Amino acid sequence: MSGAQRCYLGLDSSTQSLSAILIGVTGGRAEVLWQDVMPFDQAFPEFGTVHGVLPSADPLVRVSSPAMWVEALEQMLGRVAGCGADLSRLCAISGCAQQHGSVYLGSDGTFTRSVSPIWMDSSTRDECAEITATVGGAAVLAQRTGSRAYERFAGPQIRKFYKADPQAYAGTARIHLVSSFLASHLLGAEAPLDPGDASGMNLMDLATNEWWLLAVEATAPGLGPKLPRIVPSASVIGTLAPRWQSTYGLPPARIVAWTGDNSSSLVGTGLVTDGHVVVSLGTSDTIAGIMRESRVDPGGIGHVFGAPTGDFMGITVFKNGSLARERVRDAYGLDWAGFSQCLRSTPAGNLGRIMFPWFDPEITPDVPVPGVRRVGLEPDDVPGNVRAVVEAQMMAMANHSRWMGVAVRRIHATGGAAANRDVLQVMANVFNADVYQFPVGNSACLGSALRAWHADAAASSDPVPWPDVVRDLAAPLVASRVTPQEAAVATYADLRTRYAEAEGRLRRAL
To answer: Within 13 Å of residue 177, how many CA atoms lie on the same side as its CB?
Structure first.
């Protein structure tokens, strides 16, 4: 196929949807050939999810259906087969998935647990404490695994399952993350994990990219053999299983190890070197950047994960992201145009009126009791509440990402809300940094396709440097730059301090 176009498929199983992007590469130049998205709620109403999550009376419990993810993958591959591209040129497939979600299978491949706890779950506080105590404390756990024990991480979730249903746990032969679970379906065999996703379990030793035996034993008995092996992110782990070839006429494309959506977004936004950050405004809001060396947050807020480049990724995650913005929008009967108009009609700093939009238990900072808190802000002030939710999210992100040690002067913005330039203007002003948009909105899915190209080229003894891989599709739009406004920057410099002080008082009162 030398000289001809080579095609690469990227998949992204996020909280709310499954996305696909097919790219073509000719002479080292890449272009998007086709893309599609399948929202879970609309495509699979029979599973009963709301925003991709099964309803629960307990606000701390957040689970989804792994059977739904399988059905979505099946249907999406059918859409790929009918997309009109010359799929005989499909060389490799990779993917990513929402981090931390775990899937439990018996030796026959059936589910030993019908639901999968996902990253929004906050129900494992006791298990976090138990694991932490066994390994020697939060500082030890963070230094070895990149994070203190977090309720949503797969390790504490596995321990909770073992304690709640020891018989079902004993009958579990394999515990996958969502990424390796779906990769296994493409392979028709057990797929491994990559360090980017495995590091979101409180179980992997960052220094060795292997399971840390002490943490594994502290989590549940006999856990080690149930976990997938860990391989480098650029590993080719097999080829597309024969059943996909016979059913959809697809070629035996290479399957590249899947990763977590946050890791994949680094590639999809061109962050393959250090020096700037990516902010993802999705179901959760995140801020992340490349680290050449592991630097763990001493305050226990941020995380260090593996990066697809072989480096490390520093990341801080905020649970109340797009769903919080949507809650405010819907509460006042607005559409997104009306939401933006409220931002434009209110001054930077919101006249000192502050919201803490903890609609769900918050990850950063640690807020176990959900509830919106307001300071100097009336609930019936529509434009004030709209500005307050966006300012709160940006100030929290700026304050709680200082541990990364990055002097933020340039932000690559992605995720659904990154299309809203009024939101990005608040971001630019709070951070005092230029903000850029991207031509392809789903950075995690694009990152999967680019990772497939990078790994396939290396496996074909024709390696392509990372900067060349991201050059065409993951470079920000120069014309999209949103610049900070001097007066607003000064306003937020003061308000961020007041916000942090008020946050501390509210948390101490919980």
So the answer is: 35
Spell 188-226 as b/e; 16+ CB within 10 A means b.
eebbbbbbbbbbbbbbbbbeebebbebbbebbbeebeeb
Question: pLDDT tens digits, residue range 257-312?
Answer: 999 999 999 999 998 876 689 999 988 999 998 888 888 887 788 899 999 999 99
Read off the pLDDT band of 1 (50, 70, 90): very low
Q: Give the pLDDT band of residue 407 (cuts 50, 70, 90).
A: confident
Alpha helices in 298-345 (DSSP H): 322-331, 336-344
Q: Which residue matches tokens 């990227």?
A: 10
Q: Give the span between the Cα atoms of 296 and 298, in whole angstroms.
A: 6
Helices (H), 18-90: 40-43, 66-81
What's the whole-model pTM score? 0.87
User: Is the distance from CB of 286 to CB of 316 less than 8 angstroms?
Assistant: yes
The Cα–Cα gap between 204 and 208 comes to 8
Q: Measure the CA–CA gap between 57 and 73, rounded to whole angstroms.
A: 29
